[in-house]
Every structure is written in structure tokens, then in C-alpha cells.
Amino acid sequence: MNFRINVKTQFPGFQLVLKYLLCLCLCFLIVTTDSIGQENLRKAEKSFRDWSVFISKDDPKMCFIASQSIKGEAFRNNQKLSSVNREKGTLYIIKILNKDNEYEGTFYAGYPLQVGSKAVLEIDNKEKIVFFAHPSPKAKAEKDHAWAQKFDQKKLVDYLKRGSKAIMSAISHRNTVTKDTFMLTGFSDALLELDKRCKLN
Question: Tell me, what CATH number does 159's domain have?
Fold first, then answer.
């Protein structure tokens, strides 16, 4: 069985997400650094507290909301590390075009994840959604992202709508455990704005 088939089986919607991951990261970078030059992407259309709405200009159209972690912690051998060399974690909710209430959840770790590992998003210490790192990564975008499974996408969005805080626990390729804290204030409003702005025409 070849790699492409394995990926499709384990990560429904994987190819769609992977196709745009680099664009997503670049788009978010534009917002945080005020850089210019990515003509096919805009700055955030609108922000709602901790979440921002992004709409691409070009074909194929791409729409998503994103939030960076407000706190990042790292642990090794159950000992908290004073500092680690990594970027902030980012959580993306990508809208599936021409599909009502269908989304893709993606986590950018800011470092290479342990191959095939699980990252667990816990919302308000109650609900959990598992994200999966790539089973055989090659490109950088495959190494530092994890994806929610298709059958968990609706639950993920519902939990985030109702929640106030989410913590993503993940494992790096060096066996460092990281915990990224995301605030969910503005998530529902950002999602409504996304649905309103993200039209095919």
C-alpha cells in the first residue's frame, strides 16, 4: 500500500489541509509581522478578541479562522523546562467551501512533532479531541502540523463554541511534551463571520 493511500485512510481531508498549510502559516505571519509581498493573501478580514478571520484572494479560495497560543509550556521527564526553541502554537479552523457547517481542524506546533504521535486538545478540562501528526513526514509542513480526524470535526467546533479555554498537549521529535493554551473568547463570532464572508462568488 503506498503512502498516498495510507494518508487518505488515516487522515480524511488530509490533502486539502496539506495543500494550504504553508499558505496558512504565511498568512498568519503577515498579520503578526505586518510584512507585505504575499499578494495572494490578505491580512485578517476581522478579529474577534482571540480569533481572527482570513480569506484568500485567489483561486482556489481559502477561508479559515486562527488563534495563537497565549501560553506555551514544555516538559521533559516530568520536569518543566525554563525555555524551548520554538514558535507559538497556532490552531486553525478551515472552512470547507460549498459545504455548510463543515470544517477542518489543524494544529501548528511550531516545532517538528514526534512522527505519528497524538496531540490532544482538551477544552475546559472536560472534552477532548485527538489530533494526529503525520505518519511519514517529508516536507516541513508535514512535520510540524497535526490534524483532527474527519469524524471529529463537528465535535471539535461545537466544543470550541461552548468553551472558554483549550489546552493542546503534544510531543516533539525530541520527546519534549508541550502544552499550548488557547483562549476561546470570540471563537463563535469569528466562525459566524467566516461563514458570512466565505462565499464562492
Answer: 2.60.40.1880
